[in-house]
């Protein structure tokens, strides 16, 4: 039997494998979904950022930070070891432990190397999780320059690497190829569109209050907005 990542001897059933695969898959899919929403809201264009700031600048900053924190936690949690002391984790390493049961040494070494590579890719994210999210590290809190930068490419690489390994594991477990980067409804586009409509209506209301336009002109402007999209 191949040695697993936690050093423990594992037995598994098809049902256990399926439950574990589904649970880890959901973590990866949600990380992708949160990233897509983040990109659509905060990385699409300067015009979109201007709309968000005009509506509720601090509110959207809070949402921005919450999304980034959630993505960091989801990616780093899924890369936790299979076990911490007596506590078992839902993680990629746990899934690998199940997938390599009875497999040849080359396959085992390949998956373990993949895990090690991803851990290196996520070192900056893990720093933020350990020092800033899970704990309020004093030195890091007083000197924010100590925390490594988090460029968008870092998240994109991590998501792609984890998805790639998930599909390698899926093959070993007899699963079909999975798309972990979900095809989503354009939530960010819808949000921004409704915000723009709200801003336009607020501007019209303000013009009415200031008696800059008549009721008839208001109706004409409203019709223009209604057929704009």
Question: Could you describe the 3D structure shown?
Answer:
The structure is a single chain. With 229 residues, this protein is mainly α. It has two domains: 14-182; 185-229. The chain has helices at 14-42, 46-78, 92-99, 105-121, 123-133, 138-142, 152-172, 187-209, 215-226; strands at 83-84, 87-88. A two-stranded antiparallel ribbon has the order 1-2.
Task: Furnish the topology, listing elements before pairings.
Blueprint: H1 14-42, H2 46-78, E1 83-84, E2 87-88, H3 92-99, H4 105-121, H5 123-133, H6 138-142, H7 152-172, H8 187-209, H9 215-226
Antiparallel strand pairs: 1-2
Q: Quick recap of the structure?
A:
The chain has 229 residues and is mainly α. The protein has nine helices and two strands.
Ranges where pLDDT stays below 50 over 5 or more residues in a row are none
Spatial extent as radius of gyration? 24 Å
Q: If helices are DSSP runs of H or I spanning 4 or more residues, what is the number of helices? A: 9
What is the N-to-C order of secondary-structure elements (H for helix, E for strand)? HHEEHHHHHHH
The total tally of domains equals: 2
User: Per the principal axes of the C-alpha atoms, what is the gross shape?
Assistant: elongated
Q: Give the percentage of residues in beta strands.
A: under 5%
Which structural class do you get from the secondary structure elements? Answer: mainly alpha
Distance, first to last CA: 61 Å
List how many beta strands DSSP finds.
Answer: 2
Helix share bin: 55-70%
Sequence of strands across the biggest β-sheet:
1-2
How many strands, which pairing sense, and closed or not: the largest β-sheet? 2 strands, antiparallel
Report the mean per-residue pLDDT as an integer: 86
């Amino acid at each position: 039997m191949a040695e697993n990542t936690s050093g423990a001897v594992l037995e598994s059933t098809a049902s256990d494998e399926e439950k574990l695969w589904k649970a880890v898959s959901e973590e990866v899919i949600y990380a992708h979904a949160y990233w897509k929403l983040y990109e659509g809201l905060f990385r699409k264009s300067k015009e979109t950022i201007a709309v968000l700031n005009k509506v509720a600048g601090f509110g959207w900053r809070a949402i921005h930070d919450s999304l980034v924190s959630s993505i960091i936690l989801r990616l780093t949690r899924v890369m936790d070891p299979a076990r911490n002391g007596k506590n078992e984790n839902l993680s990629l390493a746990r899934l690998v432990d199940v997938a390599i049961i009875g497999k040849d040494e080359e396959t085992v070494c390949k998956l373990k190397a993949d895990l090690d590579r991803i851990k290196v890719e996520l070192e900056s994210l893990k720093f933020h999780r350990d020092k800033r999210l899970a704990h309020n590290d004093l030195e890091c809190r007083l000197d924010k320059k100590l925390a490594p930068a988090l460029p968008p490419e870092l998240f994109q690489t991590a998501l792609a690497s984890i998805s790639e390994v998930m599909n390698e594991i899926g093959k070993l477990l007899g699963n079909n190829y999975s798309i972990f980067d979900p095809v989503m409804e354009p939530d960010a586009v819808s949000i921004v569109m409704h915000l723009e409509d709200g801003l336009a209506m607020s501007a019209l209301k303000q013009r009415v209050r200031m008696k800059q336009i008549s009721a008839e002109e208001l109706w004409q402007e409203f019709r223009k907005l209604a057929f704009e999209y």
